[in-house]
Each structure stands twice: as C-alpha cells, then as structure tokens.
C-alpha cells in the first residue's frame, strides 16, 4: 500500500458525456462504520462500503486490534466487534497508507485503551501534521512518541481509564473532533468538543445510531458535542450512501463538456458535505436533486446535471468546511467559468494529501489557466468556456483528488493533460477511469 509504481494517464472527451452512474460509498462514513462496528458487541453489517485503500487500511487496523471483519460474495461486510474497552494490542505497526482519516480517528481509539500502537504511512501521510490530535489526546492521558514536527511514524500509548476533557477545536476539523469523541467512548464521564465552525457530523450521527449517549447543543454558530463514556455500542446494519466528494468529478465533467447530460445516483447530501453543489448552482449550473430520500440516517438524492455556462463567484469562507475536499475540482470549474472566482479561508488545504493550493495553482497554470495563489486561497480568471491549452504533465503528489481533478481538466483541454500518477485514486475512488470512460470519455 505504501509502495506503488506510478501509473501515468491522460483523458479526453471526443464528444458529450452521457449516462447514469453510481459512485463508490462515502469514505468518511465507511471508516466510521468499521470502527464503530468493531467496538459494538455482536455482529454488524455494512452495505455499500467504499472498498478503497484508505478504508481497507482501517479494516486491517481494526482486525489487528481484535475485530473479525469479512466481506461476503454479495459485497456485504460483516463485523464482529470486541466491545468498547476491549481493543487488543496490535502486534505490528498499523500501516495507514495515504489515509489521514484512518490515522487520526484510530489514534483517538487507541488513546483511551490500555494498548500501544505504532502508526506508519506513505510519503504523503508522513508529511501531515498529527499535533492537532496529539495535543487533546495527550491531555486525556495518552502518551506519544512522534517523528519531528508531530508526524508519522509515531507511537501512541493509551491510558485506561483516560481523563475526560472539554476541548475547543482550534481548527475546523472533523478528524480532530472525531478522534476526541472516539477516545471519549472509553473514558469515564463526559467528553466534550466545542466546534466554533460546524464540520461533517457523520461521527455524531453514527455514534447515536449505535446507541451511544451523545448530545449536540447549538449556541449561535457553535456546536457543543458531549459523549458519555464507557459506552455500550449495539451492533447495527449500516447502508453507506455514495460519496458526494467522489460525485463531484462526474458532475463537474458533465457541466464542463459541451452537450453533456449525466445522472449520478444515490449521492449522500448531508448538509455538512454538500457545499460544492450549492456553489455550482450559484455559478449557474443546471443541476437538480431527484428522488430525495433518507438512507441510514443520511439524506441522499440522485443528481441530474447538464452542461452549463458558468460564472465566476466569490466563495464565502464559511462554506469551506462543507466542501473542504472539493476545492481542487472547484478550481477546475473556475478555470473554465466566465470571469473571476475568488476563494479565501482555505489554509487547511495546505495540509491535505498534498498542499492543494500550491499543487492546483501549479498544475492549472501549466495547462494555461490564469491563477493567483494567495496564502489562504486561489483567485482564478476563467476562460468563459473556451478549452484550456493543456499540453503538460501534472505532478499529482500522491493526492487522489488532484489526480482526478486534472483528469477532468483534460476533458476540456486542447492538448493532452497527463497526470503523472493515477495510482492514488484507488484510495477513494476505485473504478474512476471506467466510470469516466462509461460516460463517453477516452483514457490512455
Ligand atoms: C474527514 C475530514 C476532513 C476531510 C477528510 C475526511 C473525515 O479532514 O478533508 O477527507 O472523515 O472526518 P479534516 O478533519 O482534516 O478537515
């Protein structure tokens, strides 16, 4: 997982894209479904799990800590959990591959169990900051030995019983929030996270679904989330909706390629995740939600989208957490829109799988877009629907969403846009290339 050969590729659209597709299961929900099932006593079932490398890293780690996890031939996963407080000491280092979510959430779980675990990862993950979870989990009593800068490889020595804390998030991060709530599950008393800016709330929804005592109070824009520890989780049947972050790629491809008409079925539209679609509509996208329904406690719909003439926009900083993973593909939209798009408040993008502001600015410029990189965002002057020049090789820097964004940019460029390595796409979107080809794109 941490050692793969680069797989270069380029993509083109010889004509309009059309058809109906599904995208793989939601990555955030998939991770959490495995973790909570592994902590419930008894057998849980998960349908629609994302079988991408990131989620498989979580599955392997939960197995290494005692859970019994198997995939049926029908694609349903069954998990026999060990119970909160009963995770076992893993015998070998936990290989997190490219996955920040696996790493940070599992650090939370280990922190309040009487076990020690070492976390390792690929070159991208080994550059990402873990101090943001080390700090609160350390104040709950866990001990850490980290590489310089609070990075992987690192070792966590959990403490049981841990000490409950009340923690105000200094950065808008669902991973940090979730790490603390998961640590709180095996901590006596109430663990509380104060969230000044709301982030994705899948952990809260699913913890409640598994029977944890969890409350959310709203104080203006601030959310106060409290979980009672020494919880007993009851096994569940989880149905994972399609990932809105993955759906962003076919949706944008259809918007940009002239004459296209595409439906993406079964997309999760939790309001803490759906910011991209709101911004696209505000830019003039012909985009509609059909068949709106609730699946497994999460809002879901089919997205019907047609090629549209799009206008540049000022993206309000407040919307960023609800589309934090979608800025790479939004920057591609901005490069083709009419007029200027301004984004701000995006410092967090610098510590994702790559520095997404720098990587996107560099790549978009290389294919002819007009981009100004600022400390906290990009300013992009679009072509007004004219194709980009293309004719460059993009360094995706082990970042799946950069690779997929430039695959889509290649569909609307005159000369080929080569992505140096599509291999990381397998972390979140197995079948991405087949999906685009099925809609009428070409890939070589
Ligand atoms: C995630 C939270 C976000 C997001 C990541 C998944 C999660 O990260 O970028 O892809 O599942 O909690 P941050 O918590 O760092 O914002």
UniProtKB/TrEMBL annotation:
Record-annotated active site: 325
Principal EC category: transferase
Pfam families: EPSP_synthase (PF00275)
Gene Ontology BP, a term: chorismate biosynthetic process
Gene Ontology CC annotations of this record: cytoplasm
Record GO terms (molecular function): 3-phosphoshikimate 1-carboxyvinyltransferase activity
Oligomeric and partner information: Monomer.
Name assigned to this protein: 3-phosphoshikimate 1-carboxyvinyltransferase
Phylogenetic classification of the source organism: Bacteria, Pseudomonadati, Pseudomonadota, Alphaproteobacteria, Sphingomonadales
């Amino acid at each position: 997982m941490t050692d793969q050969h680069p797989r270069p590729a380029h993509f083109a659209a010889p004509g309009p894209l059309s058809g109906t597709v599904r995208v793989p299961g939601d990555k955030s929900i998939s991770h959490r479904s495995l973790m909570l099932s592994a902590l419930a006593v008894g057998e849980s079932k998960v349908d629609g799990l994302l079988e991408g490398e990131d989620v498989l890293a979580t599955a392997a780690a939960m197995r290494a800590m005692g859970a019994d996890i198997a995939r049926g031939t029908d694609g349903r996963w069954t998990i026999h959990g060990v119970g909160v407080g009963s995770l076992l000491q893993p015998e070998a280092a936990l290989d997190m591959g490219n996955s920040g979510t696996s790493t940070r959430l599992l650090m939370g779980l280990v922190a309040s169990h009487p076990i020690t675990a070492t976390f390792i990862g690929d070159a991208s993950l080994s550059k990402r900051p873990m101090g943001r979870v080390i700090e609160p989990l350390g104040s709950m009593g866990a001990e850490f030995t980290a590489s310089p800068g609070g990075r992987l490889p690192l070792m966590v020595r959990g403490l049981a019983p841990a000490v409950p804390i009340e923690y105000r998030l200094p950065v808008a991060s669902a991973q940090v929030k979730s790490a603390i709530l998961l640590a709180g599950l095996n901590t006596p008393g109430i663990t509380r996270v104060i969230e000044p800016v709301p982030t994705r709330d899948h952990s809260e929804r699913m913890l409640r679904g598994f029977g944890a005592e969890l409350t959310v109070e709203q104080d203006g824009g601030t959310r106060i989330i409290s979980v009672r520890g020494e919880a007993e989780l009851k096994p569940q049947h989880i149905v994972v909706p399609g990932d809105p972050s993955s759906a962003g790629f076919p949706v944008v491809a259809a918007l940009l390629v002239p004459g296209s008409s595409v439906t993406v079925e079964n997309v999760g539209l939790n309001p803490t995740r759906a910011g991209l679609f709101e911004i696209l509509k505000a830019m003039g996208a012909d985009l509609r939600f059909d068949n709106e329904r609730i699946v497994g406690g999460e809002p879901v719909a089919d997205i019907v989208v047609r090629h549209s003439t799009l206008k540049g926009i000022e993206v309000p900083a407040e919307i960023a957490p609800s589309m934090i993973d979608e800025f790479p593909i939004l920057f591609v939209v901005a490069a083709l829109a009419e007029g200027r798009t301004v984004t701000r408040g995006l410092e967090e993008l610098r510590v994702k799988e790559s520095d997404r502001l720098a990587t996107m600015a560099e790549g978009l410029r290389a294919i002819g877009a007009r981009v100004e990189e600022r400390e906290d965002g990009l300013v992009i002057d679009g072509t007004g629907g004219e194709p980009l020049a293309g004719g460059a090789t993009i360094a995706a820097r082990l970042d799946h969403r950069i690779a997929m964004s430039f695959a889509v940019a290649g569909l609307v460029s005159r000369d080929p846009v080569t992505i140096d390595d599509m291999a990381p796409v397998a972390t979140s979107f197995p079948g991405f290339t087949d999906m685009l080809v099925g809609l009428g794109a070409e890939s070589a």
